[in-house]
Amino acid sequence: MEQKVVLVDDEVPARSLLKEYLQAYPQLKVVAECKNGIEAIGIINVLQPDLVFLDIQMPGKTGLEVLQEIEHLPQIIFATAFDKYALDAFNANAVDYLLKPFTRERFDQALRKALQKEPSVMQNLMALSESLQGKTYPERILVEQGNKWITLPVVEIYWLEAEGDYTKIHTAKQSFLSSKGISELETRLNPQQFQRVHRSAIIALNAIREIHREPTGPQVVLQNGITVKVSRSYTDALRRLIY
């Protein structure tokens, strides 16, 4: 069965080498090439490939940012000149991490891993599982910290705060800035674990220490002492949590 492949790399020679090595695999068809991360997101979501070879350092969006924003989740083999992102790549469930320059033998090794996973079958099973069990939510997310990305367990999040078109993700000890809006992040969080309490705030239910009744409305005090105001339009939703 033919499988679709997308190549994402801003360097033409790198894409040419991948195409050359892929000629030994007639069951794999390169359906698109992308030269930057923004282009890759649209192509991957539309063409829904089985396998993507993905560079990390690219114009527009990095490879790790691409993974955060795609809706279709193919198998990913990173092909990059930077070894410092390997841990982040594997935490994002990449099949393999090819460090440039790589040999044909190393390429074949990575591709064997991908082919052994039978991606089309896995994706069908995942889709079936989600339809039977409902939408699934990530237990870990990638967040930016300086010049790198780290994995953050969702259970460590205390609250999220809108900051213009961006969102600050707060834990007990530090904060991270996401390029996503708070409403978009709300759709990605488990509603059994998080509650919107204001148009600019979402709290983790496990992080609540107490709730104060104030003349201006309820205020939630988190375990780290931070107070988050509850707006009138979200008061009823918060009351439903009280037994």
Automatic annotation (TrEMBL):
Residues 141-243 form the HTH LytTR-type domain. Keywords: Phosphoprotein. Pfam families: LytTR, Response_reg. The keyword Phosphoprotein applies. One of its GO terms (molecular function) is DNA binding. PANTHER family: STAGE 0 SPORULATION PROTEIN A HOMOLOG (PTHR37299:SF1), TRANSCRIPTIONAL REGULATOR-RELATED (PTHR37299). This is Two component transcriptional regulator, LytTR family.
